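Annex B. Sample input.
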Amino acid sequence: MLIYRTLSASVCLFIEDEKDITLPFLRELDESMGTKLTPIVSAISEYCSQQISSVNNLSEYAPRFIYFNKMNLAYKSTTHLDNKQTGNLACPRDSIKIISDMNSKKPTLDYAGDIIVKTMNDYWVVGRLSNLREFYITIQQKNANLIDINEEMKKLCDAELKGIFFHDL
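Annex B, continued. Sample output.
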């Protein structure tokens, strides 16, 4: 195994036992890999920094969401302030706990359904399941009712998940 590193990317290469790893071989590999890998790493870094800045530019009270498509493993989220997704939350922990509880109740929803919960600190947590897609949002609106929250959910779906079909319930 040979580990090649350029900029902030590391690539593991498995080389056959019969191949001698010599200095000319390593130079040839560097010449070949470096020119191809550098633009890819730059593009990935730029994309990641755009994602972080777009999440950080949201206001404190902006709706936060998690979208997951089980069919193609697509994922999109604004609940974390960084791409590590291991903390640094942009919404209250109790909202994340409620989302986790909603996720554990998926089998009771059958094929499609909505769950809406209002927390003690005026957050609304909404879970929508449809076509093996899961969409969870947290919204802070103090004097909202179920109709307002449902409308906000539809607006957020249209804005963030363009072209993704959810069954209307």
